[in-house]
Amino acid sequence: MALGARGELIFSRDLHRGYPERITTGAGVAAALVSSAFLGTAAKDQLGLAVVAAFVFVQLPVLQVLGIDVEDFSTKDHLYVLFMTFSMWFVTWTILLTNGVTF
After folding, report:
1. Using CA atoms, how far apart are residues 28 and 32, in angstroms rounded to an integer?
2. Whole-Å CA distances, 96 to 20, 23, 43, 47
3. What does the angle CA 22 – CA 27 – CA 33 come to, to the nearest 5 degrees?
4. Does 53 map to a domain?
5. Per the domain annotation, does 33 fall within a domain?
């Protein structure tokens, strides 16, 4: 956290507006594409959850490289990253499975 010009609190995610949102949604879509490529239409395989978990853990160093202080993240910020990545993965992979898309 930091103080703004008027003394208001600025959270680390506000310092670089848009980066966490773009990274989390992009990682969710990428995780769905990887899940589809490696698992195909085997939606009952638990390996899909491992793929999305790997993408969640890879995001933190990526955010650090972009200049976002992930050390300052609260539990709420970490849950946001987890939820957004998981939900985008779930929606994208569901669409790919429904349409029978394989790579």
Report:
1. 6
2. 25, 21, 11, 16
3. 130
4. yes
5. yes
